[in-house]
Amino acid sequence: MTDRPTPSAPSGRPASSHGPSTGSPSTGGPPPGVRPQASLPEPSVIPEQGWHVGHFFYRFRRDQLDAPLSAEVCQQFCAALAPSDELMPERLASYWTSGHEADFGVIVMDPHPGKVNAIHQALLAPGIGRWIEPAWSFTSVSEVSEYVPSVESYRERLIRQGDAPDSPELAAKVSAYERRLPMMNRNRLQPDIPDWPAACFYPMNKSRVPGANWFTEPFSLRNQMMAEHAQSGMAFAGKVSQLISVGVGLDDWEWMVTLWGRNPEYLKEIVYKMRFDEASAKYGEFGPFYVGYRADGREILDHCRMTG
Amino acid sequence: MTDRPTPSAPSGRPASSHGPSTGSPSTGGPPPGVRPQASLPEPSVIPEQGWHVGHFFYRFRRDQLDAPLSAEVCQQFCAALAPSDELMPERLASYWTSGHEADFGVIVMDPHPGKVNAIHQALLAPGIGRWIEPAWSFTSVSEVSEYVPSVESYRERLIRQGDAPDSPELAAKVSAYERRLPMMNRNRLQPDIPDWPAACFYPMNKSRVPGANWFTEPFSLRNQMMAEHAQSGMAFAGKVSQLISVGVGLDDWEWMVTLWGRNPEYLKEIVYKMRFDEASAKYGEFGPFYVGYRADGREILDHCRMTG
Amino acid sequence: MTDRPTPSAPSGRPASSHGPSTGSPSTGGPPPGVRPQASLPEPSVIPEQGWHVGHFFYRFRRDQLDAPLSAEVCQQFCAALAPSDELMPERLASYWTSGHEADFGVIVMDPHPGKVNAIHQALLAPGIGRWIEPAWSFTSVSEVSEYVPSVESYRERLIRQGDAPDSPELAAKVSAYERRLPMMNRNRLQPDIPDWPAACFYPMNKSRVPGANWFTEPFSLRNQMMAEHAQSGMAFAGKVSQLISVGVGLDDWEWMVTLWGRNPEYLKEIVYKMRFDEASAKYGEFGPFYVGYRADGREILDHCRMTG
Amino acid sequence: MTDRPTPSAPSGRPASSHGPSTGSPSTGGPPPGVRPQASLPEPSVIPEQGWHVGHFFYRFRRDQLDAPLSAEVCQQFCAALAPSDELMPERLASYWTSGHEADFGVIVMDPHPGKVNAIHQALLAPGIGRWIEPAWSFTSVSEVSEYVPSVESYRERLIRQGDAPDSPELAAKVSAYERRLPMMNRNRLQPDIPDWPAACFYPMNKSRVPGANWFTEPFSLRNQMMAEHAQSGMAFAGKVSQLISVGVGLDDWEWMVTLWGRNPEYLKEIVYKMRFDEASAKYGEFGPFYVGYRADGREILDHCRMTG
Amino acid sequence: MTDRPTPSAPSGRPASSHGPSTGSPSTGGPPPGVRPQASLPEPSVIPEQGWHVGHFFYRFRRDQLDAPLSAEVCQQFCAALAPSDELMPERLASYWTSGHEADFGVIVMDPHPGKVNAIHQALLAPGIGRWIEPAWSFTSVSEVSEYVPSVESYRERLIRQGDAPDSPELAAKVSAYERRLPMMNRNRLQPDIPDWPAACFYPMNKSRVPGANWFTEPFSLRNQMMAEHAQSGMAFAGKVSQLISVGVGLDDWEWMVTLWGRNPEYLKEIVYKMRFDEASAKYGEFGPFYVGYRADGREILDHCRMTG
Question: A single GO molecular function, which one (chains A, B, C, D, E) (predicted)?
Answer without folding.
Answer: metal ion binding
